[in-house]
Design a protein that fits this description.
- The chain is mostly helical and 145 residues long.
- The protein has one domain: N-utilizing Substance Protein B Homolog, Chain A, CATH 1.10.940.10.
- It has seven helices and no strands.
- Helix 1 packs across helix 5 and helix 5 packs antiparallel against helix 6.
- The termini are far apart.
């Protein structure tokens, strides 16, 4: 069984694929993604539960994408989802979903995890950019709840 950080990273990686493939291609992409998840010494292949979690999480995020993108656009100045790098956009979408739609994940955890993923997969400034946007989203979300 994967830990929360690893699950979140795998959700990010699957969501990232969607930036490059049509909706029709995503069923095959999901299948290929699951087949190619990295094996580890203590885990030869992804568990069924983890695969279900990752694909269901992505589906829930996709379902909220219009709302998520509106929230991202409302909390950036001089940027919009069409101008952002694909890594930053994907990280933001995942984290905004967690902040706005998932009450089980504290905002600080969602932000910290997003910054770490942005640093790992993005450019040097990605972590700071993601942190700034998500800080605004979190503050706006607190006012609205």
């Amino acid at each position: 069984m994967m830990g929360r950080h690893e699950l979140r990273e795998q959700v990010f990686r699957l969501l990232f694929r969607e930036e490059f493939h049509s909706a029709e291609d995503m069923a095959l992409q999901r299948q290929q993604f699951e087949e190619n998840l990295p094996a580890e010494e203590d885990r030869p292949a992804i568990s069924e539960a983890d695969a279900v979690y990752i694909t269901e999480r992505c589906a829930r995020i996709e379902k909220e994408l219009v709302r998520i993108d509106r929230i991202i656009n409302d909390n950036t100045e001089g940027w919009d989802t069409g101008r952002m790098g694909k890594v930053e956009l994907t990280v933001l979408r995942l984290a905004v979903y967690e902040i706005v739609c998932d009450e089980d994940i504290p905002d600080a955890v969602a932000i910290n995890e997003a910054v770490e993923i942005a640093k790992q997969y993005g450019q040097e400034s990605s972590g700071a950019f993601v942190n700034a946007v998500l800080g605004k989203v979190s503050r706006a979300n607190e006012r609205n709840t």
